Amino acid sequence: MHVLRLWTRPGGLTFGYTARVVAKVILASWPLAVPYIVCFYATGVHKRVARIRVGICVIWRTCREWIRPSYFKYRDLNAEGKYWERSARDQKALQASNASTIPPEVPLVKYYMPKLLPPYRSLDREDLEAKEYYLSARIYCKWHRMVFQGPHHPTLRQAEELVRWHSNRDRREMYRISRMLTDEEVFGQSVPWDPRYRYIWRKWLETKGGDIAIVFV
Description:
The protein is an all-alpha fold and 217 residues long.
């Protein structure tokens, strides 16, 4: 029968090992021993406070095992196994929300086709020259007074003939210009003639482009 001796001659292997173990124990336990040392050397009020602190530390270390949160550790291996089983089921249930996988029971839509436009969007635009635009003689006279300066302006009968010489687009522009002033301001001469409207008409003639003429032979 062999007996293990922890203390041998100084300088031996067992003495060095024991010294290292004792040093580790001292280094690891000095935070726990400090309150007791302070309590031992304290006097008066300081001694009472130190004793209270030591009592609180002892109670806290004793009760720490019972006040740990539920997720800190499991009661046994069965409880931990149930947790991993439940986690696996939840992970499988959430796989359908992953955009990188396509579960067989939940098809994933990777593209979107917008709804087709209504039929009226695909129709060609209405040709403004295809349908004749009616412009009354009074509107023509009003437009003429706004664009041209002076006392010489066509009468209503003359305006009916002059309107025919203008295209549908010209008539629309004449009507638009005539809406910029009221009848009282134009025919009543309550405001002086303004060259701005002549400039608008000339600008229209320069930018409108060529008109389509239909000639019957």
